[in-house]
Design goal:
The chain is an alpha+beta fold. The protein has helices at about 1-15, 35-40, 60-65, 145-155, and strands at about 20-30, 50-60, 70-75, 80-90, 95-100, 110-120, 125-130. The chain has one domain (about 20-140): Immunoglobulin-like, CATH 2.60.40. The chain is about 20% helix and about 35% strand. It has a four-stranded antiparallel beta sheet, with no helix packed on it. β6 (about 110-120) and β7 form a beta hairpin. The longest helix has 13 residues, at about 1-15. The radius of gyration is 23 Å and the shape is extended. The mean pLDDT is about 80.
């Protein structure tokens, strides 16, 4: 009987887990405040936060951590502008939280998509996390003559 249970759980015991990055994207509003849920007085209830948070946690194997890792976060907003943040990873296990406040009437600073890249000191990509809508941004040079580009494309 014990052998049956051992065979049943053996696949779970032998599997490996590769992901070293964990990312969570949340909306900040009145429900973000703990005082909303427990009913305690809070001066921030008068002007609750409005925006989004991006929480990034990591847990790298020691062999990978010793490669002096750097994290590059690229955030693209609904207006197709990008912000790039760079952080040196100083601990094997840790987290960062980015808050994107949206207290203005302009709602174009809401997060559309994001990508996290982890590089070692040699510049080699160690790990990455891409939002499901992430695509590389295509930048068009407005000074370039579009008609000449169309003619070049037709020549092929």
């Amino acid at each position: 009987m014990k052998i049956k249970y051992l065979l049943l759980f053996l696949p779970f015991l032998t599997s490996c887990y590769k992901n070293n990055l964990y990312v969570q994207h949340e909306k900040m509003d009145r429900n973000y405040l703990a005082s909303t849920h427990v009913g305690t007085p809070d001066y921030r209830q008068q002007h609750p936060p409005d925006g989004q948070t991006l929480s990034i946690a990591w847990d790298f194997p020691l062999s990978v951590y010793r490669e002096n890792l750097n994290m590059i976060l690229t955030v693209r907003f609904w207006d197709n502008k990008q912000d790039i943040f760079s952080n040196k990873i100083t601990r094997k296990r840790g987290y960062l939280r980015y808050k994107f406040q949206d207290d203005t009437d302009d709602k174009s600073k809401k997060i559309l998509t994001y990508k996290i890249d982890i590089f070692n000191e040699d510049g080699t990509l160690v790990d990455e996390w891409k939002h499901q809508f992430w695509k590389e941004l295509i930048e068009i040079n407005e000074d370039e003559d579009i008609n000449s580009r169309i003619e070049e494309a037709k020549a092929f």
